[in-house]
Design brief:
Blueprint (H helix, E strand, L loop, with lengths): L12 E4 L5 E4 L5 H10 L10 H18 L2
Antiparallel strand pairs: 1-2
Length: about 70
Amino acid sequence: RYVKERQWAHNQEIHDNKDGSIILKMQTSGRFDIKRWVAGFGPCAEIQKPEDLREEFKKEVIRLYLRYMD
C-alpha cells in the first residue's frame, strides 16, 4: 500500500498482481539508489529486472548476512 500511495518517479508504472503484490516499473537515478531503496523494504521487496542488478544485489545481501552470521 505504501508504494502505491506515493509518486516515486515521473515515469512510474504500477501493476497489480492477483496475489495482492504489485510491480513498480520506473527509471531511477542509478543502481546505488535503487539497491538502498529496495533494501529499506526488507523482505517485502524484490528486484526482478534487470538480471545483473538482481545478481549484484543478491551478492550484497549475502555479504551482509555473512557479516552478521555470528
